[in-house]
Amino acid sequence: MTPEPGDNRPRRQFFSSGWNWLKLVIGLLVAYPLLRFVRFNVPRKPRHIKVEKKILVGDVHLDADFALFVGEQEVWAISRTCTHLGCRLNYSQEEGQMICPCHQSRFSRHGHRLAGPAQKDLPRYKVEALGQEKGYMVTI
C-alpha cells in the first residue's frame, strides 16, 4: 500500500516511537541514580582496641572480637568470628587451634582454615606495639 500525498501515518508512527524511546531514556536516567543510592553502603569506621598487658612469647590474649598472638618474630591478631555462620571461636591451647563450638570448623593460629564447613580463612587485624611492655593496639 503506497501512502497517499496527504497521509501522515508513517510520520506519526515515527514520532510516536521516538516519543516512547525518549520516555525510556529519561526513565533510565532517573532510575540509575536511585538504584545506585539503594545499593550504597557506608564503610565501617575502624576500631582501635588497646591491650594494656604484657603477653609473653607463645602466649595468646583472647578478646571478645579477636585473638592476639605473640610469636618470636611477629605479633598478629585474628578474628574470633567463624567465617561459616559467625559463631565465636574458642582457642584450644593443647591443639594450638581456633575451634568453632557450633559446627567444629578449625583454624590455625594464623587464621588458616584447617577443617570443617567454613570455606574462608579468618581475617587478620593490624597490630602495633605501644612501646616497652606497654601493650598493643589492635585495629579492627
What can you tell me about this protein's structure?
This protein has 140 residues and is of the alpha+beta class. It folds into 2 domains: 6-41; 48-139, Rieske Iron-sulfur Protein (3-layer Sandwich). Helices cover 21% and strands 27% of the residues. The protein contains 1 helix and 10 strands. The strands form 2 sheets. Strands 1-10-9-4-3-2 form a 6-stranded antiparallel sheet, with no helix packed on it. Strands 5-6-7-8 form a 4-stranded antiparallel sheet, with no helix packed on it. The chain is elongated.
User: In one word, what is the shape?
Assistant: elongated
CATH class of the largest domain equals Mainly Beta
What number of structural domains do the residues give? 2
Give the H and E element order: HEEEEEEEEEE
Beta-strand residue percentage:
25-35%
Question: Count the strands?
Answer: 10
CATH superfamily label of the largest domain: Rieske [2Fe-2S] iron-sulphur domain
Q: Output the radius of gyration.
A: 30 Å
Q: Structural class of the helix and strand makeup?
A: alpha+beta
Q: Biggest sheet, open or closed, and with what strands and sense?
A: 6 strands, antiparallel
Compute the average pLDDT: 88
